[in-house]
Amino acid sequence: MIEMKDFSFRYASGKRNALNNLNLTIEDGDFVGIIGNSGAGKTTLTYAINGIVPHHYKGDFYGAVTVNGLDTVDSSPEQIAAHVGSVFQDVDAQMVASMVEDELLFGLENFSVPREEIEGRVAEALEQTGISALRHRDLDTLSGGQKQKVAIAAILALRPRIILLDEPTGELDPQSSEQIYSLLARLNREHGTTIIAVEQKIGLLCRYVKKLLVLEKGEVMLHGPVREVLESSGRMEESGIHVPRIVSLHKELSGLGLVHSSAPVSMDEAETMVREALQ
Amino acid sequence: MKGVLNYIPGQTVLHRLDPRTKLILSLMICVASFLSGRVSFLIGLLALNLLLGAAGHVLPQVLRILKGMAKACAVMFILQVLFIQQGNPYFEVIGIRITDFGVRTAYMVVLRLLDATIPLSLMLMVTRLTDLSNALVVHWHLPYQYAFTITTALHFIPVFFSDMQVISEAQLARGVDFDTRNPFRRFALMAPLSVPLLVSSVKKTEQAAIAVELRGFNLRTRTSAYKVTRMAGADWAALALGAALIALSVLMNTL
Ligand SMILES: Nc1ncnc2c1ncn2[C@@H]1O[C@H](COP(=O)(O)OP(=O)(O)OP(=O)(O)O)[C@@H](O)[C@H]1O
Ligand SMILES: [Mg+2]
Question: So where are chain B's domains?
Fold first, then answer.
């Protein structure tokens, strides 16, 4: 569980708080999508969870952030990393090895996972991400989507209870993006792994996550189950945050009195909505 | 650059040798070529280099390097021939004597240059950089942080060049011609691009440092490595070959 109490953070070189007075709880087993405009503080929020703030980026830190009971200020980044695995936006920048297998071994070796456990963990992480066939391939020869899966597998091998991803599909085509999120949804469903993902593509996000967290100028504007948050799509649009097209369509149709159901989240629901409107 | 010094995956005997063996053997070949004063030995060494390239299934790449070095070799050759004035002259033009000694020294220098460059590049073609650095850390106690810094830097060079490629292509599409022959003009065109590129590289490196820290980089010790290479029969045989080459080169000098 992640808890933030009256948490604010201002970068040492920042003019205002990048995050301002957050009170926030993320439960075990949640699948949370974080959205917000550029500069809203999404990346900083992920940094506050994995301890990069305040350990790597210094600044004014107010309030408290705890991850599975660990106070992030008092714990080392490595201690926090045992609970939270982080996947970064730039896939190439986080790769350390030249071969897939070695990329997975890196973290396992560093955290002194017992030798006899290592083979099992590597095989399992590759299996879960569906890239067992790529095990002995060189990273240079992989596509963007495959590399992203390797990055996720390298984190999975460490078996964190929480996985944090910052725009994991930023450089991927729609099909690979879809694959990454269905993979994350499966990990969440089958292993109860808590997943927190920053994402620009809100339509994609809404199809997979359980909860949405909308950030605006360093503060939480909305946080709750996808459906509830989308009820307030008007507020999001006012702030210039994209909402899924099916949700804006729903708003227009209900404005015209053509539909009375709540906003659709999936394509099936959108179809039902359109049918209702056409009747 | 690309494709010449890169690792080329494979399962040949050379690929499977211990990285330490490959490093030492290639250095031994260099030493043998520097010690030798015999043209026949140097030519034999060149043949051996090509043979090794064939054994590692990287002969085309080795030949590409040879081709790439041809110009430099030609220049070296001509300079040596013109500057060395000792020995018996073949003929003389405008006061410069072309001597037998000058010509002999010239092709010795060129052969040595080739004999010394190929083994090292060959080694990089059949050895993963991470395997090499792991072996050096585990067995030779090279501090891991240094080894990691070096391999990462080398890892970023192709990334940097491909970014550069993308940007120059974008500029090309806007009508900027980088293929100008004038080096000053070329530099003037490239310089403004390097700044944003450098900034993004620094950002990348910072993100890389953070990512690596969260994966326990600072906890790593010499004994962390899971795969530890061991010297096998083939390794000792390769080292014996290297020693024999050095002995032979010295022996041939005294004959
Ligand atoms: N290293 C830093 N030093 C100083 N200020 C920073 C730093 N990183 C971010 N900021 C500032 O903090 C605020 C939040 O930035 P953050 O990167 O968290 O936003 P974001 O929501 O991730 O944006 P984007 O969608 O562009 O990635 C911004 O005003 C930004 O300028
Ligand atoms: Mg960001």
Answer: 1-127+230-255, 140-228
**What are the pocket residues of ligand 1 if the criterion is a CB atom closer than 6 Å to any ligand atom?**
A 11, 13-14, 18, 36, 38-44, 57
Helices and strands (H, E) in chain B, number of each type: 9, 2
Question: How many residues are present in chain A?
Answer: 279
φ/ψ (deg, to 5) at B176: -85, 125
Q: Would you kindly state where each structural domain of chain A is located, as residue ranges?
A: 2-227
Closest CA–CA distance from residue B209 to any residue of chain A (Å): 8
CATH code, residues A2-227: 3.40.50.300
For tokens 């795969």, the residue is: B227
ipTM over 0.85: no
pTM as predicted: 0.81
CA distances from B195 to A43, A224, B192, B209 (A): 25, 43, 6, 21
CA-to-CA distance for B118 and B220, rounded, in angstroms? 34
Find residue A26's DSSP bridge partners.
A2
Name the minimum distance, in Å, from the CA of A122 to any CA of chain B: 12
Residue pLDDT, tens place only, B182-241: 777 767 777 777 777 777 777 778 888 889 899 998 888 888 888 888 899 999 999 999
